[in-house]
Amino acid sequence: MITVYGIPNCNTVKKAATWLKEGGFDFDFHDFKKKGIAAEKLNEWCDIFGWENILNKKGTTWKKLNPEEQEVAKDQAGAVQIL
Hints:
Blueprint: E1 2-6, H1 11-22, E2 27-31, H2 32-35, H3 39-49, H4 51-54, H5 60-64, H6 67-72, H7 76-82
Parallel strand pairs: 1-2
């Protein structure tokens, strides 16, 4: 079973869900905002893709953080803490 992780109002998530549906794929949707996510899963992704790619610094959530909160994300451990 495929699991799509994201937030429901994200355009990229919407596009992925549409593509999966149109392709006939069954999938579960994991809503970060409602369900959260385990640090273990975040570290797994960071180890594969790099924490800089996992932490979205272009999104509105990041931009709403104050500079002190953003400073926490200076490495993988801090990024996982923020996420």
